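Quick one: C-alpha cells for this chain, please?
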Amino acid sequence: MSRIFLIDDAWDKLGEERTAKVGEPVLIAKIRFEQTAKIQQPGAVRVHGLAARIDPQTPLRRSYPAAEPHLALPAAANVYCTGRYELDEAQRFSYPPGDIRRSTKYKKFEREIAICLVDDEGDESFERAFISGAVSPDALPPVPVAPIVYRRADMEDPEGTQMEVRLVKESKNGPPFLQVFTNIHQGRFAGSYVSYLAGTGKMEDIDRRVRIDPAALPRAITYQDAQITVLSYDPVAETLRYRIDRPFTTAMVKIQAIFYPGAYTVANYQYE
C-alpha cells in the first residue's frame, strides 16, 4: 500500500478564537501520498481479463506490496497503483452467472481492486501490471503490458485529500460530537478511523468520536499532536466556540474509511 502522511494546515490559525456550526470542520489536515506518478499519454492495460484505461491526469500512487513469491519483483522495481474501485459481480468471479461453481470459493477478485503498474528497472517505464485485490491463484501474477512512460512527483496532493474533524449531531435533541472524516476513498467524505506512527515507533489511534458536554467546558482535546480548546457550545444556534492551540505534525498514518452503501463497508489505506 502507499505510504500516507498527515500534513498540518493550521499554522496561520493558532491561538485564534473560531466558531463552527453543526456539519462544519473545526480542524483540517491534508493527506499526502509519499510519491505519485503520472503517465505521459493515455494508456490502456488488460490484466487477467480486466481492462482499464489510465488517464495522464490521474495520479498513480506509490505502493510497497508485500514480498510475495507470485509477484517476483526485482529489488529495483517501482510499483504505482490506481485508486481502488468496485467491480460488479460478473467481473469478480471466474465463472459465468448460473454456473454451479459460482461461489465465494471460486471468487477471482475482491469487491474493491486497484490496477498496479510495475517498473522493473526503475527507468520510468512500466512493463508489467498486476491486480491488488486478486484472490484466485491464476489472477495473482503480474502480466506483461506494452511499455508506458511515466514521471514521478514527490509528495503531490492532486486530489485535495484531507482529514476533517467535524462538529456533528445524530439527532435534533441529541448531544454534539467531534468526529473524524476523510475523503481518501473515491473522493467521498466518510467517518474514518485514523492511527498514526508516533515517536515511540508504535501506531496510536486518533479519537474518532468525542462527545461534547456543554457543562464540562472549557475542555482541551488532542488529535495526534494537534490540540484545540473547546470554549463553549450554544445548543440553540448549534455552534461551537473553540481555539486551535497546536497544529498537526507530519506523520505516517493508517486510515479506515467507513461506508454504508446498503451494506457496511470498510476501505483500508495503510502506510505500508
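The chain has one helix and 22 strands.
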